[in-house]
Amino acid sequence: MGGAASSLAGRKVLVVDDEPYIVKILSFKLRLSGMIPLEANGGEEALRLVREESPDLVLLDVSLSRGLTGLDLCRILKENPATSAVPVIMLTARSLASDREQGLALGASAYITKPFSTRSLIQEIEQVLARTV
């Protein structure tokens, strides 16, 4: 994974999930790949961090339990010219084709269902970031 680590080094990735252990695991894996993880447990916190930190990518759970949902947050980010270019990868347990279609229609770059391999997630992040350079 040498190529991936070098192309991902220093890239800021915002992890948004209301399950703290998922946030911690993903942050750990991102850090191992050379990225700088930012953490949010809800949509409002994520929105604030996007504005303050300008992440290179957002990993977003669709089903946030309080406040804004992941779908709401994705729509808000994509409608705002200041944040519309930030790629969003949705991570979710919702695996219906209609859920996937809705996420992609709102502007998500990728839609990954849980459980997922962190290796494949890192590869997806690298591919999405390569398309946005």
The CATH first-level class comes to Alpha Beta
Q: Judging from the principal axes of the Cα atoms, what is the shape?
A: globular
Report low-confidence residues grouped into runs of 5 or more.
none
How many DSSP helices?
A: 6
**What number of structural domains do the residues give?**
1
Estimate percent helicity: 40-55%
CATH-level-4 superfamily name: Response regulator
**Multimer state:** single chain
What is the strand content?
Answer: 15-25%
What's a quick, concise take on this entry?
By secondary structure, this protein is an alpha/beta fold. Helix content is 49%, strand content 18%.
Main features:
single chain; 133 residues; alpha/beta; Rossmann fold; 5 strands; 49% helix
Structure description:
With 133 residues, the chain is of the alpha/beta class. It has a single domain (2-124), classed as Response regulator (Rossmann fold). 49% of the residues lie in helices and 18% in strands. It has six helices and five strands, in the order αβαβαβαβαβα. The protein has helices spanning 2-8, 20-32, 43-53, 70-79, 97-105, 118-132, and strands spanning 12-16, 36-40, 57-61, 88-92, 110-113. Strands 2-1-3-4-5 form a five-stranded parallel beta sheet, sandwiched between helices. Helix 4 (70-79) links the parallel strand 3 and strand 4 (88-92). It starts with a helix and ends with a helix. The model has no long low-confidence stretch (mean pLDDT 91).
